Amino acid sequence: MEKGQHMMRDPEWFMEDEKGWKCLLCPRGCSFKSNSSTLGHCRVRGLKDGKPYLPGYGECVSLIVDPIEKKPLYHFLPGSSILSTGPAGCNLTCDFCQNWSISQIRSVPTRYISPDDLAVMSMTGKSRGIAFTYTEPTIWFEYIADSAPLVRSRGGVVVMVSNGEINLDPLLQLIEITDAWNIDLKSWSDDFYKRLCGGRRDTVLQTIKTLAASSCHLEITFLIIPEENDDPVEWKEMAQWISGECGADTVLHISRYFPRYKLRQESTGIETLLKAREIFSEKLHHVYIGNVSLEKSNTFCSSCGALCIERSAWFVSTEGMLNGKCVSCGHVLSIVHEI
Ligand code: SF4
To answer: How many domains in the chain?
Structure first.
């Protein structure tokens, strides 16, 4: 069966004008000429025979139960597992994409999973729900809108791992049906976003601010690339902004870059990651280093300093936390320990 034919689901966020159609889901705002058959930039939405359609609807690139720490989410149901999937496409074009083989090329193998089947699978075995991740899930708006309520009706949680390049109105609708987000903040520089990603920084900041003010749990990931976004002055401004707009308890994951796709810079040095953690920790209570085997991803009580959550690779011990509080001093930790 041709992709997108599994369900005659009406696409949302398309607007018709005298020239044709425009997609309003993300700031890229793809335009489609009347009566054409074209894919949008993200390749999961487009026009067919002059009508909006969703060739990527339910077409999953992967379907794996992962530790939730791998998303990464460290302060949301720590130690749990979650079924993870994503669409074959992206609305950005990051030269350094770490998942470029499923986000940036055409003809990625996919498997259709209906929303009903996804909801059942999301609560099978040890999985606590569904994580939409790997590529860019917000471009899957309609599939998530259909699947997420089914997952929740079974008692599951819905996690989004996103680049944050989504317009405000669809974001607000997704917030209503999701529980936790990890947003990539790729740089403090808008020039970086324009030059290397084909996006804009301020859209991502708007998304982060909106999520911080919502009932969803929020964590942020910052991939540090040598010579591109490793200026400590920018780090200080970013730390100040996150702390001021989202709060000092906002979790930040500093992630190590490896050469992938078009960018060939060497991997981020350990010293750079440690320096970044030091600077971000001046404003934020919980800064973790990812993509590297350091014994530094434990969670300590921000009141008494006791070890509350111990992590080693994907092993997680929450013995230092009871009902979301520090066992040593009773301080309420900024951790979603149960839904
Ligand atoms: S969601 Fe896809 S089709 Fe819509 S504007 Fe963004 S890139 Fe274009």
So the answer is: 3
Same domain, 226 and 195: yes
Q: Are 277 and 254 in contact (CB under 8 A)?
A: yes
- The Cα 210–Cα 223 span in angstroms is 21
Q: Which atom of ligand 1 is the closest one to the Cα of 28? A: 5
Amino acid (1-letter code) at residue 318: T
Q: Which residues, judged by CB distance below 6 Å to any ligand atom, belong to the binding site of ligand 1?
A: 23, 25-26, 28-30, 40-42, 45, 91, 139
Question: Against a cut of 0.90, is the pTM above it?
Answer: yes
Q: Select from 13, 32, 42, 53 the residue to mutate for testing ligand 1; criterion: most ligand atoms less than 8 Å from CB.
A: 42
Please tell me the residue having the least CA distance from ligand 1 atom 2: 42
Q: Which residues contact 51 (CB under 8 A, 6 or more apart)?
A: none
**Closest residue CA from atom 3 of ligand 1:** 40
Answer yes or no: do 188 and 201 share one domain. yes
Domain limits for position 252: 59-296
Angle at alpha carbon of residue 141, lines to 83 and 62, rounded to 5°: 30
pLDDT digits (tens, 9 = 90+) for 282-321: 999 999 998 787 556 899 998 999 999 999 877 899 999 9
Does residue 103 sit in the same domain as residue 177?
yes
Are 246 and 327 contained in the same domain? no
| Same domain as 287, residue 225 | yes
